[in-house]
Amino acid sequence: MTKSATSHLLPVFARVDLAFERGEGAWLTTTNGERYLDFTSGVAVNALGHAHPYLVAALQQQATKLWHMSNLFKSPDGERLASRLCEQSFADFVFFANSGAEAMECAIKLTRKHHAAKGHPERYRIITFEGAFHGRTLATLAATGSPKYLEGFGPPVEGFDQVALGDLDAVKKTIGENTAGILIEPLQGEGGVRAAPQPFFKALRQLCDDNGLLLVFDEVQTGMGRTGELFAHRRLGVTPDVMSLAKALGGGFPIGACLATADAAAGMTPGSHGSTFGGNPLAVAAANAVLDVMLKPGFFDHVQTMSLLLKQKLAAVIDRYPGVVSEVRGEGLLIGVKAVVPSGDLVAALRAQRLLTVGAGDNVVRFLPPLIVTEAEIEQGVTSLEQACAALAADPKQRAAQ
């Protein structure tokens, strides 16, 4: 058998031929010294940019003390992080994991266990929505429901009923004696920066209250300031019973969390769930440092100001290049630009202008700058978009396609 001469990494990513060796703020530098403006932020992970001095110091300090200790023992720093997350939210309890998918697995298990603990084990089904993305584990893939992600992995995990986003009648018809909860993203990121109207979320809350269901919000991408508030559901004025977090929670260090009310968490007793690395001291130190920065006065005001500026400038580009881009979507600094040309072509054209973005469903390109992005960096990013649009508009192949 001949071994690969290129890479021993499992080929599950279509990697761009770029390698970065360092970053600072909103900028990344490649191994050959080229600088790129990062409006991908590790897909909404590097909320405070790269090498943030406060986060670096927190990790360095913790690295000299304790890396790992197991959840067999108490974790004072983990207790502090959980307490702070509960103080800032609706929750009474927090479970720490290592990723968004694991946080969602906990949310799914907790939702089912809630009803079993109350004498109704038959209530295990969860209603989800078309266009959602909840993770890559077998259960979260089933919750996502997309055939392209499920193909080849055998029968999907049982227990998920998917309906069209925003279709309240479909939700009502789907609720039955086996329904345990409703799972939704406040704003679909992977699905194309799509959101249901605010009254829909309020109606879901009422349906859950009326039918004894748990309302679960997947805030893996929207949480931790990405939409201009610490948690996106604050903008909706709707409080869930369970919420998953990850991505920006550790500012780049892997950590996820599942938050729940005391009632929702009924049944989660010793042995009902666990994680070897969840709540790792290094991850907890990073997340506490992220909260320190985000909870300073004026932090979210800055995010909202940059959001408005970016949206206004993107709208002006759309007016000038309607044959390339057609719509601006999103909240805070989770912004989607719907492309007329193939979104992959726009991502590539932006990369040629040294601007990093990331695609999404519905032919959308996501602009996810770090939350500490400056006005000058917003200006530069939009200038790069203009240049990319001009290049695509001048391309004869694109003109023919239009």
Summarize the structure.
The chain is an alpha/beta fold. The chain has helices spanning 41-44, 53-63, 76-87, 100-117, 138-144, 147-150, 168-174, 198-211, 233-236, 281-294, 299-320, 343-352, 375-394, 396-401; strands spanning 20-24, 27-30, 35-38, 93-97, 125-129, 160-163, 179-184, 214-218, 242-245, 256-260, 325-331, 334-339, 355-356, 358-360, 364-367.
- The total of beta strands comes to 15
Structural class: alpha/beta
Distance between the termini: 48 Å
**What is the strand arrangement across the widest sheet?**
4-10-9-8-7-5-6
Spell out the helices and strands N to C: EEEHHHEHEHHEHEHEHEEHHEEHEEEHH
Percent in helix: 25-40%
- In the predicted model, the low-confidence regions spanning at least 5 consecutive residues are none
The coarse silhouette is globular
Number of helices: 14
Radius of gyration: 22 Å
Average pLDDT: 95
Query: Biggest sheet: strands, sense, closure?
Result: 7 strands, mixed
Strand content is 15-25%
